[in-house]
Amino acid sequence: MTTYYYRLPGLRFDRPLIFGVARFIPAESLAEELNPALSRAPTTASMRAGQEKVTEILAHWGDDAALAVSLHDGELANRAATEAVGVLRFFMRDQIRVNVDVHLIGLVGEIRQGIRDFIVLWDRDKPLTATGWRRVGGTVNFTFSNEVIAALEGDSAVAFLGKQLSLPLERRSANGSRSLTALSMYDTGLRAVEPTLRVLCSAIAVVVLFSDPDDGDRGRTTLIARRVAYLTCQGGLWRVRRSLPLLETWGAIVKSPVQRPGCVGRQRTGVAM
Fold it and tell me: Number of structural domains, the chain?
């Protein structure tokens, strides 16, 4: 079995946490798992170079935890890693008491972050100017203690999703696929900086979660696409039937009175939400 390891910046785990094929492990566990390969006497120059590079990367990761995914294919492993972190991000919210939306964790590159510099001018009789900055996005340091890990392991929903993560996409149950897709959509909004996108993705996640499994893939996809069009079209489309009350409310929040180029505008259409 091939195992892929991904760095989790700023995270600590008192002990491993397992989500199906994905394992969240402390830095010490990562070093132990890699030690047999790193301690072997190199038989070729490329093997020696590989060991030296892995040792260098481990030193760079320092005390950060890692996500280990055991799958035969790199693309599948990357997908599983993204899904597993999304599940963890969702369920760790119960362990945070304040500023839930800014306590974000993730794989490298998942969370937008940066420092936005700006200049201020006070236009008075005696003008003054100064500089400032604002943090945009970013992750926080967080420790998954034994108590937190035990709470996650005892959650039946986490156990169900962990089992679904272990299955190939085509073998996941209808509820499992729908739950993971909804969580992925919600997670996209959670990681977004723009508030409007957060609301939009949350609305789509709810639609996905409660979509009718009897519609089949084609019907469900079309239904969701229609609702996405309703939420994102800024021309104020008229509809024959009302949308779900939840989407009706959120649609009013994210819509803008500004006409977007290419939108069909306020003409009467037969699109049923």
Answer: 2
* Domain presence at residue 184: no
Among residues 169, 186, 210, the one where a domain terminates is 169
Run of H or E residues at 68:
strand 65-70
User: What pLDDT is attached to residue 137?
Assistant: 74
pLDDT 10s digits, 222-252: 565 566 666 556 555 544 444 555 455 445 5
In this predicted model, what pLDDT tens digit does every residue of 45-98 receive, in sequence order? 999 999 999 999 999 999 999 999 998 888 989 999 999 999 998 888 887 766
Tally the C-alpha atoms within 13 A of residue 136's C-alpha that lie toward its C-beta: 12
Residues 30 and 147 in one domain: yes
Please indicate, yes or no, whether residues 65 and 198 belong to a single structural domain of this protein: no
Rounded CA separation 147/94 (Å): 13
**Strands 142-144, 113-122: pairing kind:** unpaired
Can you give the pTM of this predicted structure?
0.72
Q: Which domain holds residue 213?
A: 194-273
Burial 228-247 (b: 16+ CB within 10 A, else e): eebbebebebeeeeebeeeb
- Classify residue 134: in a domain, yes or no: no
